[in-house]
Amino acid sequence: MRSLFQxxxxxxxxxRRAFAQGMALSVTVLVMGVALLALSGWxxxxxxxxxxxxxxxxxxxxxxxxxxxFLALGRTAxxxxxxxxxxxxxxxxxxxxxxRLLSGVxxxxxxxxxxxxxxxxxxxxxxxxxxxxxxxxxxxxxxLAGLLVIGVTALAIALLVHPTIAVVxxxxxAIGPTLxxxxxxxxxxxxxxxxxAGMQALRSRVIDxxxxxxxxxxxxxxxxxxxxxERAADFQSESQSDVERIERAxxxxxxxxxxxxxxxxxxxxxxxxxxxxITAAQAAIGIFAALALSEAVAPVRRALSEIxxxxxxxxxxxxxxxxxxxxxxxxxxxxxxxxxxxxxxxxNHTNAPLFDPVSFSVAPGETVALTGRSGCGKSTVLLQAAGxxxxxxxxxxxxxxxxDQIDTELRTRLIAMxxxxxxxxxxxxxxxxxxxxxxxxxxxxxAMLEAVQLGETVEQKGGLDAQLGFRxxxxxxxxxxxxxxxxxxxxxxxxxxxxxxxxxxxxPLASRVLAGIRRTLPDTAIxxxxxxxxxxxxxxxxxxxxxxxxxx
Length: 552
Hints:
Number of helices: 20
Helix content: 55-70%
Shape: elongated
Largest sheet: 5 strands, parallel
């Protein structure tokens, strides 16, 4: 429940005024509903009693009927305003929550982001966030408003009718439904979480089926993938059926409690009226008020069906939105952007060193190549030079400061990295390039494309407005890699980190691309993980990473 409370605080924090207005309108709706039914009951009973004793012509019917109309119209207007206010506030709060979630993901270690599947991340942004919309709309606001109105109504009944009926209403509507909710949510929690997990699995498998359709067709796995989708759908359907069964049972118990309270109010009211302690019209007020309060406890039934998936979603989301950047607000001298490693080494997942400690520097205008066998830690060095991690041994500094301690925004301006796996999105070539520099002109885009030997290729494809498909479909592997290189050049970084930048290119083209990078960024420090002769020959210096011998 701690995660749920934290989400509630986040939802309410940014929209306090709107939710306060929604809360006031919710209370108004319930109060008007109780007053409308209670006044109607009193009016009908009092009018009938006046007629029976021959006082009908003297009974004032205009004032009560006018009040009934006012309450009916006012309740409708208040309900409309409450829905408009709370739903609008909830949508804004969920939007802010999505931004917090995206920010938290960006603060994750690069390796963790790299392993994050698109379908899983999409579930976090859509299904999990959407599961939390009921926290304010169907749990917090209705629950608080209902308890407040039940208490106010019980007090009013005690003053206007009789304390005994007030106690029955308070016990029947405040304590009874609360116990039902506590017991019901314990039963509904597991199937509700299973239904949420089933929905996530169903979405993930459908997305994977669509995104990987070509590979599935090639390897003959379409039927197996479709079977996985069907199993997820069956699991979700069965779990949802369990939730709905509990919801129906809860609704039955709430109805029984409501009718028990009404019957008790009727019996007690009749007894008191016969004893001349109250009038029949007063008894009618208690009976109809008890009947009207069933609306105040109605949200319990809906909340039970969703509490499990709300808790499951909150547990998954809270750790991600709580991630805060560990960097300090430290500035670095932009003119002194030399990268310096002293006795530096990185660790693997078992905290053992990947390579023997190395010391090197990369000054502005220099190119240093990291060499070594596959898996020796070249990519890890680049990631830590980009600020994604802390040196396990020694130091790695940029401009005299530990790279991971530089302010994130400043570090983003100073450093650009092109990893092995390229990242392009569906859209035009210009849109893909401008992800790095939104204000870049068409001339600047063409200049970067020419630098990486892509100008002629892009012209043949239709220019900057040519459309790319999902993950850059429409470009070959080598073309996509050069497109990512062009995007990095647009940033004009002080430190450029390249992980095997000419993979998939023939030797002459690789040499021209590397020369174009240096020509475009003559004063940039370049650190490169190299495995090809062209990359090694291009570097001013070479740093060989030697794997640390393992003790067996």
